[in-house]
């Protein structure tokens, strides 16, 4: 550790993202990217932006993008916050949740960035165990808390919480911000955005990284009550006034507007997921029901880490977590039908 920096740097336990290999001939099923390219309209919009206006700063408020998101979700632009990937939106949200006296609640098996942000901002937290079936039970979120956050569908399990259960959590916690991280909602779930007009303490976070194939562009957003959004704007403007560059704003606007392309590619991923789940079941895998663009699976006779390593030898990269309760599982991103075929072929050889 460099002696010139503050000792606080030594206390951080940074997030370790899934591998982004340099090798390009791998079948990359480890970080839940979309196998299809972004909307052609988004690519055109970004090319036009590059030709015209990179000399100038972008709009610090990204008003065009807030409008496009508001139109898509049937809310007002004042109910929308945008950021550099949903990770940044989450980071600002965590700063807003810093309370000192009450812990933040999130599931024990969940997005591994939550404990990292908590550490960064020195937020106390309690990791609430998932049920035996790897589900979130709303009744488990009743202790005194300074906020609640969970992904829906949850990651890495893929399990979906219905809106009625989210309402139970909201009703049991009227004084807490309840954050629903919907990175994967477009692959089969109903968005909690439908509830934001009824619950002033609900914040819904989404990303263009997964269902809109723009992981490389880094655009995420939050939808919620104007009061919650205004607080996020204050935090953002205390940190970076221009989180979204001109490419991000113009590409994201076009991607939000191209609804036909969005629903077509989501449908393709869902249909591939259902077929892959069935085939993996036939090979003896236990496959958790998934509403996301990945499957969480284990084989009763195979060690999880070993299986991931054997797949890697065959140029297929999937995600394995060295964490209690799930270290026998693999998280496999749903790719194209052809990628599923190659994965199944490799597994048949290994098993
Ligand atoms: N939330 C969850 C649950 C995720 O899995 C991810 C992707 N790793 C994110 C948020 C962040 O996505 P992004 O920053 O690309 O929007």
Automatic annotation (TrEMBL):
Highest taxon, organism lineage: Bacteria
E.C. designation(s): 2.6.1.9
Database matches in CDD domains: AAT_like
Keyword Glycoprotein: no
InterPro entries registered for this protein in UniProt: Aminotrans_II_pyridoxalP_BS (IPR001917), Aminotransferase_I/II_large (IPR004839), HisP_aminotrans (IPR005861), HistidinolP_aminotransfase (IPR050106), PyrdxlP-dep_Trfase (IPR015424), PyrdxlP-dep_Trfase_major (IPR015421), PyrdxlP-dep_Trfase_small (IPR015422)
Modified residues (N6-(pyridoxal phosphate)lysine): 210
Catalytic activity from the UniProt record: L-histidinol phosphate + 2-oxoglutarate = 3-(imidazol-4-yl)-2-oxopropyl phosphate + L-glutamate
Record has Calcium as a keyword: no
Keyword entries, A-Z: Amino-acid biosynthesis, Aminotransferase, Histidine biosynthesis, Pyridoxal phosphate, Transferase
GO MF annotations, alphabetized: histidinol-phosphate transaminase activity; pyridoxal phosphate binding
Pathway noted in the entry: Amino-acid biosynthesis; L-histidine biosynthesis; L-histidine from 5-phospho-alpha-D-ribose 1-diphosphate: step 7/9
GO biological process, one term: L-histidine biosynthetic process
Aminotransferase class I/classII large domain: residues covered: 24-347
Entry-linked SUPFAM superfamilies: PLP-dependent transferases
Gene3D superfamilies reported for this sequence: Aspartate Aminotransferase, domain 1, Type I PLP-dependent aspartate aminotransferase-like (Major domain)
Requisite cofactors: pyridoxal 5'-phosphate
Family the UniProt entry places it in: Belongs to the class-II pyridoxal-phosphate-dependent aminotransferase family. Histidinol-phosphate aminotransferase subfamily.
PANTHER family in the cross-refs: HISTIDINOL-PHOSPHATE AMINOTRANSFERASE (PTHR43643:SF3), HISTIDINOL-PHOSPHATE AMINOTRANSFERASE 2 (PTHR43643)
Subunit structure, as described in the record: Homodimer.
Protein name: Histidinol-phosphate aminotransferase
Source organism (scientific name): Sedimenticola thiotaurini
Lineage: Bacteria, Pseudomonadati, Pseudomonadota, Gammaproteobacteria, Chromatiales
Gene: hisC
């Amino acid at each position: 550790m460099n002696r010139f920096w503050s000792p606080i740097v030594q206390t951080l336990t940074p997030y370790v993202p899934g591998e982004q290999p340099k090798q390009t001939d791998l079948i990359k099923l480890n970080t839940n990217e979309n196998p299809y390219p972004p909307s052609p309209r988004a690519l055109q919009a970004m090319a036009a932006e590059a030709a015209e206006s990179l000399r100038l700063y972008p709009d610090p408020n990204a008003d065009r993008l807030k409008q496009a998101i508001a139109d898509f979700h049937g809310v007002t632009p004042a109910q929308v916050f945008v950021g550099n990937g949903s990770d940044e939106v989450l980071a600002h949200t965590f700063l807003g949740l810093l309370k000192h006296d009450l812990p933040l609640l999130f599931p024990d098996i969940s997005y591994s960035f939550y404990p990292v942000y908590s550490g960064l901002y020195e937020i106390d937290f309690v990791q609430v165990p998932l049920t035996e079936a790897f589900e979130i039970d709303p009744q488990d979120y009743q202790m005194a808390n300074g906020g609640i956050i969970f992904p829906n569908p949850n990651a890495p399990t893929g399990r979906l919480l219905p809106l009625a259960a989210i309402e139970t959590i909201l009703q049991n916690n009227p004084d807490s911000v309840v954050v629903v991280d919907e990175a994967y909602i477009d692959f089969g779930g109903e968005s909690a955005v439908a509830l934001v007009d009824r619950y002033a303490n609900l914040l819904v976070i989404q990303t263009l990284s997964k269902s809109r194939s723009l992981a490389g562009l880094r655009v995420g957003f939050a939808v919620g009550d104007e009061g919650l959004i205004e607080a996020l704007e204050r935090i953002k403007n205390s940190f970076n006034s221009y989180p979204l560059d001109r490419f991000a704003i113009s590409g994201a606007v076009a991607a939000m507007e191209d609804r036909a392309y969005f629903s077509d590619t989501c449908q393709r991923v869902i249909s591939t997921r259902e077929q892959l789940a069935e085939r993996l079941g036939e090979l003896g895998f236990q496959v958790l029901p998934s509403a996301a663009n990945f499957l969480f699976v284990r084989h009763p006779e195979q060690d999880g880490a070993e299986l991931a390593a054997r797949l890697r030898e065959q140029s297929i990269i999937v995600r394995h977590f060295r964490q209690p309760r799930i270290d026998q599982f693999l998280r496999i991103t749903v790719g194209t039908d052809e990628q599923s075929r190659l994965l199944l072929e490799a597994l048949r050889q290994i098993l």
